[in-house]
Amino acid sequence: MAQQIVDAVHAGIRLVGFSLAGEESFVAAPDLNVCFDVGRSPREIVNIDHVLLTHGHMDHAAGVAYYFAQRMFVDNAPGQLYAPEPLVGPLQRLLAVWADIDGHEPRAMIRAAWPDQMFELRRGLAVRPFRVNHACRRHDGVIVEALGYSVVDVRQKLKSEFNGWEAARLVEAKKRGVEITERVEMPLIAYCGDTAAGDFLGLEHVRRAKVLVLECTFIEPDHRSRARAGKHLHIDDLREIVPGLENERIVLTHLSRRTALSDAKRQLVKTVRPSDIDRIAFLMDAPRRRPRGGERRGTEAGEGRPHESGEAR
Ligand SMILES: [Zn+2]
Ligand SMILES: [Zn+2]
Asked: Which of 32, 50, 216, 222 is the most buried (most CB within 10 A)?
């Protein structure tokens, strides 16, 4: 498996990311100014103002302090990180410890996210956190359930009964206090982080997001029980999950280093219906790869010749 950060467009949304189970996972959507998880906080995410952290496992959260420190270093505003509520205190303590080590505590805005409590990133762009089926056990015994996040475009749209009305008539109706618009939400990306299957896959903003980012940690037939035990997905789970999903694109992450991308792709073809195969991609299978720290813009995934990785481990 190649070790470069990938940069590709999926269903019109540019995703920059890297994901290998146990090593590092993050997926940024630079045009939305959002990054899901931080991995080891590579340069590519330092200018992104909003981070949505799914859970505390090191492969997703290792770079939190570095993210805030690097933003200070390049004179960016502190940035906002949202995390499951029980992680907020420990993350703040982590930053405070850096003052003892480095002499500076990185300036940070760390905010709690709760399942099903929507919050706004900016006007017209909101986040719906949802509980997934994965957890971390803190050493004090507290189990911290992981969150997924849907980023949702929110706008006011003219109600259908007013379609075709002239502008002057609409203005007049509005003056009379008639509600001529309604709130419409369009889920752009649903990012599930690490998770086994669960009811969250039936949520409207997950099932119908333009892009669904879903993990697929195991592909070997004898690894089903490992997937269950670690609360991860096995590729076989996709057989049941995918038919219920309406996403334009499903992007799979979190393969293990043991798994060759070519094997995973072969297994995927055997697993899902032929009619679904074109809308499913592996994140790390982007056609253009670039060295860490590079600046190249993404291309539509699936364009051109796929870059086949020959490395098996
Ligand atoms: Zn992980
Ligand atoms: Zn995890």
From this structure: 216
Cβ contact 79:109 at 8 Å: yes
Q: What secondary structure does DSSP assign to 202-266, as a single string?
A: GSHHHHT-SEEEEE--B-SGGGHHHHHHTT--BTTHHHHHGGG---SEEEEE---TTS-HHHHHH
| Number of Cβ within a 10 Å radius of residue 282 | 22
Q: Which CATH number fits domain 11-287: 2.60.120.200, 3.40.630.30, 3.60.15.10, 2.40.260.10?
A: 3.60.15.10
211 contacts 247 by C-beta, under 8 angstroms: yes
- One-letter amino acid for residue 197 of the chain: A
Amino acid identity for residue 42 in this structure: P
**Domain residue ranges in the chain:** 11-287
pLDDT in tens, 210-253: 999 999 999 999 999 999 999 999 999 999 999 999 999 999 99
Ligand at shortest distance from the CA of 26? 1
What is the number of the ligand closest to the CA of 57?
2
Give me 229's structure tokens. 């035990």
Residue linked to tokens 């630079």: 30
pLDDT below 50 — which residues of the chain? 1, 289, 294-297, 302-313
DSSP 272: S
Sort residue 237 into left (φ over 0), alpha (ψ -120 to 50) or beta: alpha
Q: Ligand 1: distance of its center to the CA of 91 in Å?
A: 18
253 Cα to the center of ligand 1, angstroms? 10
pLDDT tens-digit map of 59-107: 999 999 999 999 989 888 889 999 999 999 999 999 999 999 999 999 9
Q: How far apart are CA 29 and CA 14, in angstroms?
A: 6
Query: pTM for the full model?
Result: 0.90
Ligand 1: centre distance to CA 166 (Å) = 54
